[in-house]
Design a protein that fits this description.
Helices cover 9% and strands 39% of the residues. It contains five helices and 30 strands.
């Protein structure tokens, strides 16, 4: 029988389709006679429409940038907040563009939702890219930015697939699914792993999406959530998840999953066994003080110490209305310890008033960095990258430490780290050489080892 992965990637002739239908009929007939698991039947259902392509999908070519449009010398520019156009001027502006493949007159990334630095100094970026004549994004998925700045497509699909393809999010080529690109992790060999509500899936090098753990049919949008969700451990097919979000893969091949709406930490071993490492009673207990609950909003791996780094921010009403932010280290065994505790108002234990966390990363030396807004005593604030000083349980500003009072907040400004400004740091990742890549709303910025912030992609 033809593999499912063959469907949706070839435009079958009529005779081929009829032959496939005959084979499917025979399989179902034999199944009724001999008996089969229901998953064998359900897996065939998406194939009936998988050969259907819209004209837009047939014409889709994944956006790339493989030709330099400028010299390698940095170019200054002024940001312009207009959809479809990023820069109003290309001289004398506060943004310093260092990628020679990026054209200030055009938008490449219409939307970015995540990034991961790769071992070779490159970057994997998730989001939407390319704009048509109506300023609509052409493609959705994953793109690679090489160390020299060139951009190539990894796994993408036309944005016109939605509503025109079979209602499935896995067991099919990525180009024929409705799988959203955010909340992903990079595995050995370049595979991409994602958590999608009730399952964990893998996008292989061939672009084919496979379920790694979770109930059969958990990937089907037409399936009933009550039939696939839960909180069960065990073999991959027997495991159940409920609103799984963040994922991370450690050097040993374990997949760490934030589950139960951010209230538990699960582990999927390379052998396919799912276990709970941090339970809902630990992470979301209503009887435990907020600052003592291990936060799981953000995940990072510390290669130096061989453990997870996590964090979260939560509002509290008593004794006064405040915002608590905590950072934790979690050993693979499940032991956890708090390394940072800060508040937005009052006397913050972190020595700085922290207005929540928005990203976490660990540098090659094992030092934790967070993105947060620091509240100034004069009433202002600055969005910054902060290094966690674990010995003192405080934070040290890496960027934004010398922003003069009265400067416009939330406006990108490149240059020396102490003067650099950001709009909203949604994600960040360290390259092996210590370069920090930051997803700053709709820009990709980087902080190099010399302490300079520049704009790398947009």
């Amino acid at each position: 029988m033809k593999k499912l992965q063959d469907f949706g990637v070839l435009d079958f002739a009529y005779t081929t389709r009829m032959a496939s239908l005959r084979r499917t009929f025979l399989v179902v007939l034999v199944g009724f006679i001999t008996g089969f698991p229901s998953s064998n039947v359900r897996a065939q259902t998406p194939a009936k429409d998988a050969g259907r392509y819209s004209d837009a999908e047939k014409a889709y070519i994944a956006p790339t940038l493989t030709t330099k449009v400028a010299t390698d010398a940095p170019r200054s520019a002024t940001l312009q907040v207009v959809y479809g156009r990023k820069f109003a001027a290309t001289t004398g502006g506060p943004v310093l563009i260092t990628n020679p493949y990026m054209d200030t007159a055009k938008v490449f990334f219409a939307k970015t939702v995540g990034l991961v630095a790769t071992a070779d100094g490159g970057l994997l970026v998730a989001g939407r890219a390319g704009l048509d004549q109506n300023s609509q994004a052409l493609g959705s998925g994953y793109w690679r930015i090489a160390a020299d700045g060139a951009v190539t497509a990894v796994h993408t699909r036309s944005t016109n697939t939605y509503g025109k393809t079979p209602a499935t999010r896995c067991e099919a080529p990525y180009s024929r699914t409705h799988l959203d690109p955010e909340n992903f992790a990079l595995a050995a060999g370049g595979a991409i792993v994602k958590a999608i509500d009730y399952a964990v899936v893998r996008i292989g090098a061939d672009g084919f999406v496979k379920r790694l753990a979770g109930a059969p049919f958990a990937c089907e949008e037409s399936g009933q959530a009550s039939q696939v969700r839960g909180d069960a451990n065990g073999p991959a097919d027997a495991a159940r998840f409920n609103q799984a979000t963040k994922v991370l893969i450690d050097p040993q091949g374990n997949t760490w999953i934030v589950d139960q709406l951010g209230c538990s930490l699960r582990r999927l071993s390379p052998e396919g066994q799912v276990s709970t490492v941090i339970s809902t009673e630990q992470a979301c207990s209503t009887t435990t003080p907020m600052e003592d609950r291990p936060g799981l909003d953000y995940l990072a791996w510390d290669h130096v110490h061989g453990e997870l780094v996590t964090g979260w921010s939560r509002p509290v009403a008593r004794p006064v209305h405040n915002l608590y932010s905590t950072v934790w280290r979690i050993k693979p065994s499940g032991e956890y310890r708090r390394v940072l505790y800060g508040t937005k108002v009052g006397k913050s234990p972190a020595k700085h008033l922290i207005d929540g966390l928005s990203a976490i990363a660990v540098d090659p030396q094992g030092r934790i960095h967070v993105a947060s807004r620091i509240m100034k005593r004069d009433g202002g604030s600055v969005l910054a990258v902060l290094r966690v000083d674990e010995a003192g349980a405080t934070v040290v500003p890496v960027t934004g430490a010398s922003v003069p009072p009265g400067d416009a907040e939330d406006q990108p400004h490149d240059g020396a780290a102490a003067r650099a400004q950001f709009r909203w740091i949604a994600d960040m990742s360290f390259a092996p050489d210590g370069t920090l890549y930051l997803l700053d709303e709709h820009l990709i910025r980087k902080l190099d080892r010399a302490g300079q912030v520049t704009t790398w992609a947009f």
